[in-house]
Design a protein that fits this description.
The complex is a heterodimer of chains A (346) and B (502). Chain A contains 13 helices and two strands. Chain A is mostly helical. In chain A, helix 4 packs across helix 5 and helix 6 packs across helix 7. By secondary structure, chain B is mainly α. The longest helix of chain B has 59 residues. Chain B is flat and about 115 Å long. The chains are: A mainly alpha (346), B mainly alpha (502).
Chain lengths: 346, 502
């Protein structure tokens, strides 16, 4: 280690990263850490998949079939990638909800929240671009529906549609740009945003769920709250959570390995075209309200979530004293779940 | 007294003249009717159908035509310029009924092709004076009679020059007078029969390619049934009226009416449309073979086909309007049905015969209806039935195994490809039954079983792989949990060293 330290001088950085203290009362439920690990899993499994995947409309389907059927442990890598993607969306949402209900987005963590919302958007876009890559019927038609939703945005909709598809239809141009975005653009953006997010968290520390403004930037604890070391105590908790997550992924990949439908055929429209599950709410909303409202309402909600820390400036963090906020958020969550349920069963 | 004798003589003459006259009229129906064109004697009142001209359902020999040649069409001559249509201008303002008629014509194929009112009703469409436009001196005939209507439609639709622009055939008129409908109309003046407007509409005529047209393929069965399922209309002809009901339950009816598969046959596919007739017994193989070509070829190789006029036809086993999904049941009766030699042999001459009435009941359409249980052929039928059942079992087994593998989340595309090959062989084996040759059928069933075994093997391999994965999953999860326990134990030790939360 001494040899490495002499040549890198990274020891102070590592010590500064690890030797921080977190409030003993902090209740993160490990959602953020799990989302981070899932991103790492996606990077590793995605890289392995890229070794065999061919991003052309002629060969994409066959290459995915080859990975799943013939490559040693290909089925496992692909299934873990599939379940990792879905779980990542779930845990990023859980993480956001935890931060929201604990009011951890409030001063001084507004920017941390905004970068986090951006990471949520990147996660969704990861799923959206990755869904097309197997080039089977579900992938093709879900992408067709998904891009059409984007095409319904007022003023810029047509531009967005052409930008996403690379033409009027989902085609080779779409596959090429989705592949490029999925394996290069999004990982770089997500990696950069993650570093920023983690630096903010590191510098500002974890929020206390019952006491606002526990610590000012760069200072030690002010309010005399009990703390525990991040390393090794808190990280060990996270490690146990990650292991349980790993076990869950092994079970999911083994019992419900990812399948493959018929090869994409633009001339054969399936009976029931549906987007990915996390777009089902928007999809169902579009069926129930005028298109303009159906598209602009989710955009407005995301925008509202993004700037929420600047609108909710009260220092209060206890949920029982934030009844209106809690009620509004609950209505939004229940509404989204209900729309998703109806969309799934429609 | 003189007057009385004269009256008695006249009455006696009348008693003799009525039956003789009636006989002469019947004879004249077949020879003279062609000379009197429909336009010459337009019949606007329904004439009672003549029972003497009823046509058998499925004959073995073609009946001589009652009308050697179709009557000449009867175009209406009018002074129209093919642009003016004063009729439309006035009739749209007369009353709601006339407005509807005018609108129907305007949207019809004739309205769009500038075929005006005067082309069917006569009159002068260039005049806006009712006394001129609707004057008989200008050819106005009002509503044409049913017999006249055929001649008017035929005037244009048999005109090659006029139909060229629309790319329409010109043989419908001639075909119509070769049909049962046309022959009854021409020979017996029976205006109850179907004429052009009954099927195509009157003012609202649409192309038959238009799905809303009553003559569109999927609408044809209901169209025919509008008369042929009407017991009152069919009573004079002695024709059954349950064909449509039976057809709806058949595989053909299901495909056409429920699945909207326009490749499936309608009434017209077998009976013809303009030249509608019951198919002759000798024609049936060709009628079915128009679609089932491969099966027809196999049938022609069979011993059955060599029997000529008395050969079992498609309907002998499959029925006519009630064609159902074929299957194992068609080979032999489930129980030992009483065997009756007279089913296929004339009791008097011992000669083979083919009587459709013997096979009207679906339960009678079995091989052992004709072939005696002690015969060599019966044993051959048993052999064919058994080998087909074996092939079907092998195929179903593979299909089930693939379903099991798929339910475990395995990708079974390769197994399904193998199964589809087995399916092809199975279909070939089922079709080969029409050759009536056990060796030919066995060749295909053996191939089916081999291919089904391959598909089954692939699927079984996937099930085994899934089982291995699940066993490995248990081990991995167990190892992870052991690690978790170790970490948890370390965590508790570390946490004990921390101060309690204030």
């Amino acid at each position: 280690m001494g040899w490495l330290e002499e040549r890198t001088g990274l020891s102070p950085v590592i010590k500064a990263s690890l030797h921080v203290r977190v409030p003993m009362a902090a209740q993160t439920f490990y959602f953020g850490g799990i989302a981070l690990v899932l991103f790492a899993v996606q990077v590793v499994t995605g890289t392995l998949l890229t070794l065999y995947y061919t991003p052309t409309t002629d060969h994409a389907y066959d290459s995915v079939l080859f990975i799943t059927s013939d490559v040693e442990f290909g089925w496992l890598i692909r299934s873990v990638h599939h379940w990792g993607a879905n779980l990542m969306v779930v845990f990023v949402v859980f993480h956001m909800l935890r931060v929201f209900f604990q009011a951890a987005y409030k001063y001084p963590r507004e920017l941390t929240w905004m970068v986090g919302v951006g990471l949520f958007g990147l996660t969704i876009f990861f799923g959206f671009t990755g869904y097309l890559l197997p080039w089977d019927q579900r992938a093709y038609w879900a992408t067709t529906v998904g891009t059409e939703i984007a095409g319904g945005v007022p003023v810029v909709g047509e531009f967005l549609l052409l930008l996403l598809r690379g033409g009027p239809d989902v085609s080779q141009a779409t596959l090429s740009r989705f592949f490029g975005i999925h394996i290069l653009v999004l990982p770089l953006l997500t990696g950069g945003a993650l570093v920023l997010h983690l630096v903010f968290v590191h510098q500002l520390g974890l929020a206390h769920p019952r006491k606002p403004k526990i610590r000012k930037p760069g200072s030690e604890a002010e309010d005399n709250v009990p703390l525990r070391p991040f390393w090794p105590n808190y990280l060990l908790d996270e490690l146990i959570a990650w292991y349980i997550l790993l076990a869950a992924m092994v079970v999911l990949a083994s019992l419900f390995p990812v399948g493959l439908e018929e090869q994409a055929d633009p001339l054969v429209t399936p009976d029931h075209i549906k987007p990915e599950w996390y777009f089902l709410g928007v999809y169902e909303l579009l069926k129930r309200v005028p298109p303009l409202i159906g598209i602009m309402a989710p955009v407005a909600v995301i925008g509202l979530i993004m700037v929420w820390p600047f609108l909710d400036r009260s220092p209060e963090v206890l949920l029982r004293r934030r009844k209106i906020v809690a009620l509004g958020a609950t209505v939004l969550i229940v509404g989204t779940i209900a729309l998703t349920y109806w969309g799934y069963n429609s | 007294m003189a007057r009385s004798r004269t009256e008695r003589a006249f009455r006696a003459l009348l008693v003799l003249a009525v039956p003789v006259g009636a006989m002469l009229l019947i004879l004249a129906g077949s020879t003279v009717a062609q000379e009197s064109s429909p336009s010459a004697s337009p019949s606007t009142t329904p004439t009672a159908p003549s029972p003497t001209l009823s046509v058998p359902q499925a004959t073995t020999e073609p009946l001589p035509s009652l009308v050697p040649a179709p009557p000449l069409p009867t175009p209406l001559i009018h002074p129209g310029d093919r642009q003016s249509n004063s009729c439309f201008d006035c009739h749209t303002a007369v009353n709601p009924t006339q407005q509807t008629v005018s609108a129907q014509w305007q949207d019809s194929v004739h309205g769009r092709a500038a075929i005006g009112c005067a082309d069917c009703h006569g009159g002068d469409p260039t005049s806006d004076q009712i006394t001129v436009a609707m004057s008989p001196s200008n050819g106005y005939i009002g509503t044409p009679g049913r017999a006249v209507t055929v001649g008017i439609c035929g005037a244009c639709h048999s005109d090659i020059e006029r139909m060229r622009a629309s790319n329409l055939p010109t043989d419908q008129y001639a075909k119509y007078f070769a049909s049962v409908h046309g022959q009854r109309l021409a020979a017996a003046g029976d205006t109850q029969v179907a004429i052009c407007t009954d099927c195509h509409g009157v003012h609202d005529i649409k192309p038959v390619s238009d799905p809303t047209s009553s003559a569109y393929q999927t609408n044809v069965p209901a169209l025919c049934a509008s008369c042929h399922a009407d017991a009152d209309k069919m009573a004079p002809y002695g024709i059954p009226t349950d064909q449509y009901e039976i057809y709806q339950q058949s595989v053909h009816g299901e495909a056409l009416l429920v699945q909207r598969d326009i490749r499936a046959p309608s009434c017209a596919s077998c009976h013809g449309s303009h030249d509608a007739k019951p198919p002759l017994s000798t024609e049936v193989v060709e009628v079915c073979g128009n679609c089932h070509r491969a099966t027809q070829t196999l049938y022609e190789q069979s011993r059955h086909a060599q029997l000529g006029r008395v050969a079992p036809k498609c309907w002998t086993c499959h029925g006519t309007h009630d064609v159902s999904q074929p299957g194992q049941r068609l080979f032999l009766h489930a129980d030992n049905a009483p065997y009756d030699c007279s089913t296929c042999h004339d009791p008097a001459t011992q000669q083979l015969r083919l009587d459709i009435t013997q096979f009207e009941n679906e339960a009678d359409r079995r091989c052992d209806t004709c072939h005696h249980p002690n015969s060599t052929i019966y044993a051959q039928v048993q052999g064919i039935a058994t080998t087909l059942a074996d092939a079907q079992t092998a195929y179903s087994g593979a299909e089930t195994r693939i379903g099991e593998a798929a339910s475990l989340g395995m990708i079974v595309g390769d197994a399904q490809v193998a199964l589809s090959e087995a399916k092809t062989s199975l279909i070939q084996a089922q079709a080969a039954v029409h050759t009536t040759k056990l060796t030919v059928v066995t060749e295909h069933t053996k191939d089916t079983i081999d291919k089904a075994d391959i598909a089954n093997g692939i699927a079984q391999g996937k099930i085994d792989e899934s089982t291995s994965r699940r066993a490995a999953m248990v081990i991995v999860v167990a190892l992870i949990l052991v690690n978790c326990l170790i970490f948890f134990w370390i965590k508790r030790r570390l946490d004990r060293e921390l101060p309690a939360e204030g």
